Each structure stands twice: as C-alpha cells, then as structure tokens.
Amino acid sequence: MKDERISGFYRRFFGGVIILSVILVSGTTGYRLIGGSQYSMLDCFYMTFITISTIGYGEIIDMTYSPEGRVFTMFVAFFGIGVLTYLLSNFTAFVVGGELKEAFWRKRMENKIKTFSNHYIVCGLEGDGFYIVHELYATSRPCIVVEIEKRRIERALEMFHALPFIEGDASDNDILLSAGIERAKGLFAAAGEDNLNLVVTLSAKQLNPDIKVVTRCKEIKNVNKMKKAGADVVVSPNYIGGLRMASEMFRPTVVSFLDTMLRDKERNLRIEEVVIPDDVDPKPISALHLKRFPTCMLLAVKTRSGAWVYNPSEHQVINPSDTLVFMSTPGERIDMKKIFHLKEPS
Q1: How far apart, in whole angstroms, are the C-alpha atoms of residue 245 and residue 265?
Q2: What span, in angstroms and rounded, lies between the C-alpha atoms of 51 and 133?
Q3: CA 345, CA 331: separation in Å to the nearest integer?
Q4: pLDDT value, residue 63
Q5: Phi and psi of 264, rounded to 5°?
Q6: 15-20-22 Cα angle (round to 5)
Q7: What confidence category does residue 197 fall into, taking pLDDT thresholds of 50, 70 and 90?
Q8: Are strands 120-123 and 143-147 parallel, antiparallel or unpaired?
Q9: Cα dihedral value 71, 74, 76, 80, nearest 10
Q10: In the predicted model, is pLDDT for residue 202 greater than 90?
Q11: In the chain, is it the N or the C terminus that has fewer CB atoms within a 10 Å radius of its CB?
Q12: pLDDT > 70? residue 6
C-alpha cells in the first residue's frame, strides 16, 4: 500500500521543483534577451541562480542602464525565492516532523509483511480485536493487524512491540491484498459493526476461498447473513458473555481455573489442537512419548470420522486426519509440531 503522506510530499516537492525549473529557464532566457549575446547562457543562468538563492555576489549582467532588467530581476526574485522557500520548508517539515522516519518505518513494515505466509489477519482493533491480537501474540502465532484508526494502532503498539499492521479500511480489497490474504491461513473480521464485518468476510472469501474466516456478529439475527457471506465461524460476544455470566454463577471454580490458565504469564498454558498429517502411519499414543513435554496433558482425540475420545489411553491408536486436543504451552506446541510433523488445524 502506497503511503499517502509520502505521496503527498512527493506531489508537493516535485510540483515545486517543476515550477522552480520553469523560473530558472525563464530567468535564463530573459537575461539573455535583456543582456544580449555578449553574455553566455551560463552567465544568464548564474545570474538567475544567485538572484533566487539571495547569495548576492553582485550583478553578472549589468542592469545599471536597464530599468526593464531590474523589473525583470524583481519578478524573478519574488517568484523564485517564494518557490525555493516553499520547497525548503516542506522538506524541513517532512524531516523534523518525523514523517521521513515514519515513512521509512512503514516501508520496512510493508517489506516485512510481504514475507508472511500461513499467518492470521485481524481486521479491527475495536474491543474484541485487541484481545484476539493479545492471544495470537501470547501463543506465538504470526498475525497482521488491519485498522483504520491510528489511535487504536498506537495503543496496540504500546503493548505488542513490532506488531505488523496496515492502516486502512479492511473492506478494501487492495488493503487485504497488501496484508497478504492470498497467503494467509485465517482472518478475523472483528470490526465493531456487523455491516463492515459482512463486507470484510465477503471480500476475504472472494480473494482467498480457502482462508478460514471467523466473524464477529453483534446481532444474532445477522448470523445467517454472515454464514452466507462465507464466514466459517460466527461469534456473538453478547451470547458468549451471557454464557460466561451463567457459568460464573453455576461453575465458578471451572471459570476461575480457565481464567488463571489464561492469565498465568509464567507457564502461559493453553488448550491447543493439532492435526495428524495424512502421510503419518497409524500409531498408538504411547509412540508419541508425550511425557517428554512436562506440561503437556492430552485431553481428547477427535477422530477423522468426527467421534470424540476423551481422556484417551496410551493404547488409543491415532490415525491420519485425527485431531489431538491437549493442554500445553505455546513453546511445547511448536516443539511437538516440529518433532511429530504435526500441523495446525485449517
């Protein structure tokens, strides 16, 4: 995505350069006509240059007996000095105001985003989006944030340093393409309005039909619309909030356990899932030697037929396309994937 501020600076700067060039050419031509052929084009150009730059070395072309020459010099000085001052002030403001540094930083960010693949795109930092980024950051999953309001981005950067982001409208196809949606693994449509999330979902599925889209839906009546637009999962914060409040009343210890697990920064435990690749031969769970991972606890296995096996024994055979559900740290999840050649769920 082309930075608008850089583009604006280029337009102003090069526009001024063109006008200054016209003044230099006009001044050189005018002095040649006024002074005559006894002065070279270099003399005439030099006369124009020292007039505009206010160097004041003295008149190269004698204007003592040429009133029209003096009037011409005043016009050259007035317009030339004005344009030169405009150029210098714009450049100074661009550098001193931090825009140059920010522009280069944004360029590095764009180059970094181009290297991303199998990442997640979070569209919107309003409310839920911020906590989605927090979870992705805490579990070491690569993500790119798309947000139209700069203040929300600045707030996120205070907590998540070097967070890749794009400032723009997530419903714009060009913005999603610059976020690497064609290479992305999943997208969160987490804007505050259902209408925007609907458009983002539709755009994402058009650009990448294989991407998994999780969409926020404020109004329950819009859930079917979201699914018809292509959302793989639709989440209603109001519905989940109601379930959470009921759980606090009836199952406070369970809720406390989950909250503690999520907030424990030292162990950083999560309930994770990985999928057994298709090229892996069937084997018992004991063959995985999960005890080598101190905090790993296998909770369930979802077979490829859709059946669930809870608290599976070590003799339980796992087959290709089975999904393991376990509690572990993000670091151990990554190690397990490397050792067993497992893959994230699609």
Answers
A1: 24
A2: 58
A3: 17
A4: 80
A5: -75, 105
A6: 100
A7: very high
A8: parallel
A9: -170
A10: yes
A11: C
A12: no
CA 231 to chain centre: 22
- What end-to-end distance do the CA atoms of the chain give, in Å? 28
Residue 165 or residue 90, greater confidence:
165
Where do the DSSP E strands lie in 17-150? 120-123, 143-147
Q: Say which residue the tokens 């009343």 belong to.
A: 249
Strand-pair category, 270-275 with 120-123: unpaired
Strand-pair partners of 275: 323, 343
Report the alpha-carbon distance of residue 225 to residue 214 in Å, rounded.
13
Q: Which of 9-18, 118-127, 150-159, 312-321 has the lowest mean pLDDT?
A: 9-18
What does the alpha-carbon distance between residue 254 and residue 321 come to, in Å, rounded to a whole number? 30
Q: What is the mean pLDDT of residues 34-55?
A: 86
Q: Is 173 helix (H, G, I), strand (E, B) or coil?
A: helix
Residue 22 identity: V
> Alpha-carbon distance 222 to 275, whole Å?
31
Question: What values do phi and psi take at 93, rounded to 5?
Answer: -65, -35
Q: What is the 3-state secondary structure (H, E, C) of 272-319?
A: EEEECCCCCCCEEHHHHCHHHCCCCEEEEEECCCCCEEECCCCCCEEC
The pLDDT value recorded for residue 101 is 63
Q: Which domains does the chain have, with CATH numbers?
A: 4-100 (1.10.287.70), 116-241 (3.40.50.720), 269-340 (3.30.70.1450)
Q: Which residue has the tokens 């292509």?
A: 230
